[in-house]
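ping. complex inputs:
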Amino acid sequence: MMHSIYIGLNNPGQEQKLSDILQNRYPNYEIVLSTQLKNDLQLKHCQGAIIWKNDPNHLLNMPNLKLIQCMGAGVDFIDWSLPQYRSVPVCRFVDPSLSVQLAQYVIGYILSDKLEFDGYRALQDEKNWQQREPRAGSKVLILGLGAIGSRIASLLQQMDFQIYSWSTTLKGTELIHEMTTQDELSAVLPDIDYVVNLLPSTPKTTNFINESFLLDMKADACVINVGRGESLDTEALISFLDQKKIRKAILDVFKQEPLPSSDKLWEHPSVLLTPHIAAQSSLEAVASVFSRNLEKITCGKAPEFQVDPDKGY
Ligand code: GLV
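pong. complex structure:
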């Protein structure tokens, strides 16, 4: 029987690059690209699909499909009411390369903030030799202690940061003050210096960081959002920043992407924003994870990071 692999991404250039990588790994397979699809018959022999913000209808015509591998960690683009996502295992892409990039982004900002590099650059312009006290805060709250959150936590711990986490289940991670309830969170928030959001976007996490959350925080604290824009109430955040009740927000993800040029966040003096670049999936790593998962499924084993449709992550 003929074998094929389907690639359906939101970027034709990336489809082509991923196709070249996969063709090397699977010389006898046909690689079917969504952007070059000639007719639906090509989909019939697809055993695996790699997708990202794709056309979901193509998946309906793959009767031999065994695996849907997403190209990123957050799978909120998937409409779980569609049957094609329920009949085959759907896996998130979680890989050390992704966790390390996110850790570098988060820790990079926290360190430069603590060391006040921006402030020293301004003093340099004035030729002002002023030795300041280092910024004191070392308490970091991580929202979402999954594979990525745990990696960030352990790297920060090595630099003597104190880690708090909030997630739906306790992970029993050593030296982390883990929380699962709103009450515990409210009790701890007044002490936190940096909140790092990594929550998946689900109905339960919409506007998780909202007015009452921000009210519990101290005015000197920073919010770092590298999860999803939906988890943060931007209006509430802007109002807190305006009133100097939150010191700074570092934002890589937004409710609407690209962020419209009319959005107030662009010009806000207390916001540092980046265009969703905190972690970019390596195509080589995506191909490896896909191959490993397809192999596992073929041998009757469970694939890695299979999504529970009812939870959405
Ligand atoms: C990026 O946002 C991802 O979900 O991997």
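The chain has a mean pLDDT of 97.
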